[in-house]
Specification:
Elements: H1 12-27, E1 51-55, H2 59-70, H3 75-87, E2 109-115, E3 120-127, H4 133-143, E4 148-150, H5 151-160, H6 171-182, H7 208-213, E5 226-231, E6 237-243, E7 264-267, E8 271-277, H8 279-285, H9 287-296, H10 301-319, E9 337-343, E10 348-352, E11 357-362, E12 366-371, E13 373-374
Parallel strand pairs: 3-4, 10-13
Antiparallel strand pairs: 1-5, 1-11, 2-3, 2-6, 5-6, 7-8, 8-9, 9-10, 11-12
Helix pairs in contact: 2-3, 3-4, 8-10, 9-10
Length: 377
């Protein structure tokens, strides 16, 4: 974690307390007086400090394309090029070619991008047989008045722009899918209609019976994604996220990656953020948007990302009344979720529920892996 993320005089209690006080004052305004929201804090983007922040699997692409950003390249172009490296890598079964398929053995891809200077976005979801959905998402942003194209429409849009039809299911991914099919039982995403489950009478969460109920392996299936946020030499921000989604998902399932505000979000007034991991959790938290809004109010990237994860923890605990597998015996989320973020001053952070690494590239140390900060409370 880079040192500038510790903002002097700032802590979570002060930040949240100040927000609560401002809200109370707004609500106390006389009925005949127009209520206004305080203008966001403005900051001058740091120039001459090209920065890339993203998921661990973005490192290879960063090593290849960071120089383009450092030489003055457009941040969105560079972010997409970094993502395309993994989209074309058959060994990365969470993205693009060789991605693990859905229940029917079909690889369906999602991707999105966003550009700070214009505050425009583009995305595709459930697109099949297209190698680089990140490029298609950028075209949706540049060539249409829409934010999201899905399924057949997204495929035909890509084909109209010259993208070739590609078989994305590799032999390795096909075999993994067959192995899953052979043992298919409770390892899928279908839930039985039921009342909210309760722990056995006079039993704690550590009881064997309760743990058996709460141990569905569906939530341990491979998940992945690649996210990249970028700050250009001119202080422009952009981001891109692309994925093949949850392995063996219900056909048509869309995770957070192509959802603006969930899988990614950026704003030229404050910074950029993105997510990898359990997409449903990021969608319910509107995680990336929440982080950027906290940046807007003056939070450091590390504090903003941790606060978004705290919301995810509380959501998982509420949801566990109906889906006990959402939490472990300690009441913590049983799944993983990572957020990556940067602000206009060049501060950055990577935060996770479970730990691991993230990728970063800056002028001081170049492309590298750093340890994700783990949410401790």
């Amino acid at each position: 974690m880079n040192e500038p993320n510790t903002a002097p005089g700032y802590d979570r209690r002060t930040f949240l307390g100040g927000g609560a006080a401002a809200w109370a004052l707004a609500c106390a305004a006389p009925a005949n007086q127009e209520r206004t929201v305080a203008a966001p804090k403005t900051s001058t983007p740091r120039t001459g400090f090209p920065l890339l922040v993203g998921s661990a699997n973005a490192l290879v692409g960063m090593q290849r394309f960071y120089k383009d950003l450092a030489d003055g390249g457009d941040p969105l172009d560079v972010a997409v090029e970094v993502c395309k490296v993994q989209e074309a890598d058959p060994e990365d079964q969470s993205v693009g070619l060789g991605g693990l398929p859905n229940e029917d053995g079909v690889v369906q891809l999602d991707a999105a991008c966003m550009y700070g200077p214009t505050h425009k976005s583009g995305a595709v979801a459930c697109i099949e047989n297209i190698l680089h959905p990140s490029e298609v998402a950028k075209l949706v942003m540049q060539r249409t008045d829409h934010c999201l194209l899905v399924g057949k429409g997204a495929y035909e849009f890509a084909r109209a722009h010259g993208f070739p039809h590609v078989e994305l299911l590799t032999e390795a991914s096909r075999k993994a899918w067959l192995e899953w099919k052979e043992r298919l039982s409770s390892d899928d995403d279908w839930l039985q209609e039921r009342e909210p489950p309760k722990p056995p009478k006079n039993a704690s969460l550590e009881s064997a019976d309760w743990q058996r109920v709460a141990s569905r392996s569906a939530w341990k299936r491979p998940t992945g994604t690649i996210h990249v946020s970028a700050l250009s030499t001119r202080g422009e921000v952009a981001c891109c996220t692309t994925t093949s989604g949850l392995a063996f998902k219900i056909p048509g399932r869309v995770g957070d990656s192509p959802i603006i505000g969930a899988g990614l979000y950026c704003d030229q007034e404050c910074g950029s953020a993105g997510a990898t991991g359990r997409g449903e959790a990021s969608i319910l938290a509107n995680g990336s948007f929440a982080i950027v809004e906290l940046l807007r109010q003056g939070a450091a990237p590390l504090d903003a990302a941790k606060e978004a994860l705290r919301r995810v923890v509380r959501q998982a605990q509420r949801l566990s009344k109906w889906q006990p597998e959402m939490v472990d015996a300690d009441g913590r989320p049983s799944f993983n979720l990572q957020f990556y973020t940067l602000d206009l001053s060049g501060r950055f952070a990577g935060v996770s529920l479970k730990g691991g690494k993230f990728a970063v590239a800056d002028p001081e140390r170049g492309p590298r892996h750093e340890e994700l900060a783990v949410l401790d409370a």
